[in-house]
Write a structure and sequence with these properties.
The protein is of the alpha/beta class and about 120 residues long. It has one domain (about 10-120): 2,3-Dihydroxybiphenyl 1,2-Dioxygenase, domain 1. It is about 20% helix and about 30% strand. It is built from three helices and eight strands; from the N terminus they run E-H-E-H-E-E-E-H-E-E-E. A hairpin with a 2-residue loop joins strand 3 (about 45-50) and strand 4 (about 55-60). The longest helix has 11 residues, at about 20-30. The relative contact order is 0.22. Pfam families: Glyoxalase_6. It comes from Pyruvatibacter mobilis. This is Glyoxalase. InterPro entries: Glyas_Bleomycin-R_OHBP_Dase, Glyoxalase_6, VOC_core.
Length: about 120
C-alpha cells in the first residue's frame, strides 16, 4: 500500500460560521468555494477547493480551535498575502525558524492556526 496524495484537510468551525469562513478562505486566501454533496451539506460547513488544494470546513458541536495543528499554504507572493491579512485586521505572527522559507502564522476567524510560507 502506498499513499499517493493528501485529498483534503478538514478544519472545524462552530455552527453558523459559514460567512466568516467564506470571507477568510474564499476572499482573503482566494480559494473558490465548491458545493458540498447534498447529503453532507445538511451538516453545515463549507468547502474550498483549487486544484489539489482542498480545505473542508466542518461544524463541530463542541468546537475548540486547533491552535497547534495547522495546514500550511505555500504561496507565490507572501508579501501580498501578508498585506491582505493586515488590511483585514488579522494579526500576523512572523516566524523564521524554518530554514529556506519565509513564513508567518495567522488565525482563521475561529482561532484555527494557519501557516503561510514561501520558499526563499
Amino acid at each position: 500500500m502506498t499513499i499517493t496524495q493528501l485529498h483534503h484537510v478538514q478544519l472545524a468551525m462552530p455552527a453558523g460560521g459559514e460567512e466568516a469562513a467564506r470571507l477568510f478562505y474564499g476572499q482573503l486566501l482566494s480559494l473558490p468555494e465548491v458545493p458540498k454533496p447534498r447529503e453532507l451539506a445538511k451538516r453545515g460547513g463549507c468547502w474550498f477547493e483549487q486544484g489539489d488544494i482542498r480545505i473542508h470546513m466542518g461544524v463541530e458541536a463542541e468546537f475548540r480551535p486547533a491552535r497547534k495543528a495547522h495546514p500550511a499554504f505555500q504561496v507565490s507572493d507572501i508579501d501580498a498575502v501578508r498585506a491582505c491579512m493586515l488590511a483585514a485586521g488579522i494579526e500576523v505572527k512572523d516566524d523564521d525558524a524554518l530554514e529556506g522559507f519565509r513564513r508567518f502564522f495567522v488565525a482563521d476567524p475561529f482561532g484555527n492556526r494557519i501557516e503561510i510560507l514561501q520558499p526563499l
